[in-house]
Design a protein that fits this description.
The protein contains six helices and 20 strands. By secondary structure, the protein is of the alpha+beta class. Among the domains are: about 60-100 and about 205-240, Beta Barrel (OB fold (Dihydrolipoamide Acetyltransferase, E2P)), CATH 2.40.50; about 105-205. The strands form four sheets. It has a six-stranded antiparallel barrel with strand order 2-11-15-13-12-16. Helix 2 runs antiparallel to helix 3 (about 155-205). The longest helix has about 50 residues, at about 100-150. It is rod-shaped, with a radius of gyration of 47 Å.
Length: about 475
């Protein structure tokens, strides 16, 4: 009886051990079943640039305001005879709007009447002067005769004194008449100035275009009352020349040192997807702005708009060109960031520990992959940016394993990087990342109508193949 119980227990233990072993092998096999994501070494042009966002602005904008208060009674006509409105082309001197001028016309008429009155006062003063001069002449002749006779029996002393005082009074009256003329002339100048002011206010009731251009914005309607106080109310916004535009770009302080006047620039706008526009840096403004502790500088880019396709205030996605390479070999940056584990490397390269070029670690070195695997192999190659050069490793397929190819890295556009090295040829298939077969099968059986989210690949790829490096 005891022997049979022992046999049963032994059989159960053996079955449990065999089942566990089989499950472990199955689980291990599923875990190690991976598929590689690959890309090919391509040959082409590489543009190293700095990206930023800006706004398309007219080269010169003029704000047309009103210098008098009143009600807008009508708008002017453009060259085609249409009422001026948004987008209307206008010439210098074109009437844009008219303000009710009845009050200002009355003031101008009153000022004109005051000028005429002042002119009449000048004439009266001049006539009075002539009269005083005639009286002075008569008094002077009487005084001269009185002096010849002197106080005597022929001329009494009182008469002598009267002639003298009459002469002196006549002299004073002439001086007063001359002063009256000066006063009347000053009053005339004052009246003329008031007339000019009243006429100018009357002229201000007609709003005219100061330059040739295009109306970007009309900010008033007919019947609206404008009030001019300390600041002139804005009625129209004119762009002087839309054949040349400027793009105002906010550039981070970390990149501003790479920007200089005359630097070529390319940009796109959402209104015309897929179309590239060209320009060059015209000016770097020194008045930096700070937003949430981020310092940016405004860079002005000059671009030609002879076609008229660029509209004011479009958002521009700008690329400042730092370096342009033609006909070079390129790989996605993800290929330089990815590092395999030991069991993914071909056995021949595990044992020989192939030596990389001077200055970089070999696949047998004590390097740790971005995934934290202490058995990861290969150098820690960061994604090259700008015009930096360095050394890195890409991994080519070798059956179901991968083998290292040591390369020299060049500039990168944050998507692809230039590489050079022995064994690197156009069309070479290289690994950019891995994913488990189970995950791949699950992705294949996923509901096609369900939204798909990006997955972080295994093996330290750090991002989708060919995508920008993680920040």
């Amino acid at each position: 009886m005891r022997r049979s119980v022992k046999r049963i227990i032994t059989a159960v233990v053996l079955l449990a051990v065999l089942g566990g072993t089989a499950a472990w092998y199955l689980q291990r096999g599923n875990g190690q079943a991976v598929s590689y994501r690959t890309a090919k070494v391509a040959r082409g042009d590489l543009l190293v640039s700095i990206g930023a966002t800006g706004t398309v602005e007219p080269e010169e904008v003029i704000d047309v305001g009103a210098q008098v208060a009143g009600q807008i009674v009508s708008f002017g006509k453009d060259a085609a005879g249409n009422t001026v409105d948004y987008g209307s082309p206008v010439e210098a001197g074109t009437v844009l709007a008219r303000i009710d001028d009845s009050l200002y016309a009355a003031q101008a008429a009153e000022a004109a009447a005051q000028v005429q009155q002042a002119k009449a006062a000048v004439q009266v003063a001049q006539a009075n002067l002539k009269q005083m001069q005639a009286k002075l002449y008569s008094a002077q002749r009487d005084w001269e005769r009185a002096q010849k006779l002197g106080p005597s029996e022929a001329l009494a002393q009182s008469a002598y004194d009267t002639y003298r005082s009459t002469y002196e009074v006549a002299q004073a009256n002439v001086a007063v008449a001359e002063a009256d003329i000066l006063q009347a002339q000053a009053a005339l100048v004052q009246a003329q100035a008031a007339q000019q002011r009243a006429q100018r206010n009357l002229d201000y009731c007609t709003i005219r275009s100061p330059v040739k251009g295009v109306i970007i914005d009309r900010r008033v309607n007919a019947g609206q009352t404008v009030v001019a106080s300390l600041n002139a109310p804005s009625l129209f916004l004119l762009a002087k020349d839309l054949t040349h535009m400027r793009v105002w770009v906010a550039v981070n302080e970390a990149d501003i040192g790479k920007i200089h006047p005359g630097q070529p620039v390319s940009f796109t706008v959402d209104a015309f997807p897929g179309e590239n526009f060209k320009g060059e840096v015209a000016n770097i403004r020194l008045n930096a702005s700070m937003t949430q502790n981020v310092v940016t500088y405004t860079v002005e880019i000059l671009t030609d708009n002879s076609s008229g396709r660029l509209l004011p205030y479009l958002t521009a996605n700008v690329q400042f060109e730092l370096n342009r390479l033609s006909n070079v070999l390129m790989v996605p940056n993800a290929a330089l960031r990815w590092t395999p584990s030991v069991d993914q490397v071909a056995p021949a390269y595990r044992d020989t520990r192939a030596s990389p070029p001077a200055g970089s670690k070999g696949p047998g070195a004590d390097a740790q992959s971005p995934t934290g695997n202490p058995q990861a192999m290969g150098p820690q190659a960061k994604s090259p940016t700008g015009s930096n050069t360095g050394r890195g490793t890409i991994w080519a397929l070798d059956g179901k394993f991968v083998r290292p190819i040591f390369v020299r890295t060049g500039p990168s556009d944050n998507l692809n990087a230039q590489i050079e090295g022995d064994g690197v040829v156009e069309g070479l298939e290289i690994v950019t990342g891995v994913q488990t077969r189970a995950a791949a099968q699950a992705a294949d059986t996923t509901n096609p109508f369900a939204p798909k989210f990006p997955r972080r690949p295994q093996g330290g790829a750090g991002g989708p193949p060919g995508g920008p490096p993680p920040r």
